[in-house]
């Protein structure tokens, strides 16, 4: 990444190792929800222009962003990218993104289960509905 305060990737790490989204809809959602100053329209324009290559452009060719968004927005986007990159690299050094689940298991508490709930808030395994009638 160009510029003062740039964050470089360790030799053993590639952008693909960081767990960043790669499909277009995920990229738009991620940018719009994770980067200050980037709304859905800006995110869509960036993804339309750079596609799955966006994070490589952010990291290696940030000047290309100016062809899509204003310079002040480029600066904010690059600040967000730098923070995101630092956070992801720190997580990698700590041993992965699911440290919370790992710690829970070490403390004798089972990791959180990621389950979906039925339409009425009951589990799929049965039980009672909120109205008190069996499912």
What key attributes describe this structure?
DNA polymerase, domain 1, 135 residues, mainly alpha
Topology:
Layout lengths: L23 H11 L5 H11 L3 H7 L10 H24 L4 H8 L29
Helix pairs in contact: 1-2
Describe the protein in words.
- There is one protein chain.
- With 135 residues, the chain is mainly alpha-helical.
- The chain has a domain of 68 residues: DNA polymerase, domain 1.
- Helices cover 45% and strands 0% of the residues.
- 13% of the residues are buried.
- About 8% of the residues have low confidence.
Radius of gyration: 20 Å
Question: What structural class results from the helix and strand content?
Answer: mainly alpha
Order of helices and strands: HHHHH
Q: Which strand-content bin applies to the residues?
A: under 5%
Q: Ends: how far apart?
A: 56 Å
CATH class bucket of the domain at 23-90: Mainly Alpha
Number of helices: 5
Helix proportion of residues, in percent?
A: 40-55%
CATH topology of the domain at 23-90: DNA polymerase, domain 1
Proper CATH architecture of the domain at 23-90? Orthogonal Bundle
Query: Which descriptor suits the 3D outline?
Result: globular
In round numbers, the mean pLDDT is 79
Give a nutshell description of this structure:
The chain is mainly alpha-helical and 135 residues long. It contains five helices and no strands. It has a domain at 23-90: DNA polymerase, domain 1 (Orthogonal Bundle).
């Amino acid at each position: 990444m160009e510029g003062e305060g740039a964050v470089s990737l360790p030799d053993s790490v590639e952008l693909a190792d960081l767990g960043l989204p790669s499909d277009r809809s995920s990229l738009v959602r991620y940018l719009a929800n994770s980067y200050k100053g980037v709304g859905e329209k800006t995110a869509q324009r960036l993804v339309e222009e750079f596609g799955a290559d966006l994070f490589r452009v952010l990291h290696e060719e940030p000047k290309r962003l100016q062809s899509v968004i204003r310079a002040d927005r480029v600066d904010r986007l690059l600040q967000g990218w730098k923070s995101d990159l630092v956070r992801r690299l720190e997580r990698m050094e700590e041993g992965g993104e699911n440290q919370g689940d790992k710690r829970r298991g070490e403390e004798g508490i089972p990791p959180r289960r990621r389950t979906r709930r039925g339409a009425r808030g009951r589990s799929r395994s049965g039980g009672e509905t909120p109205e008190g009638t069996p499912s």
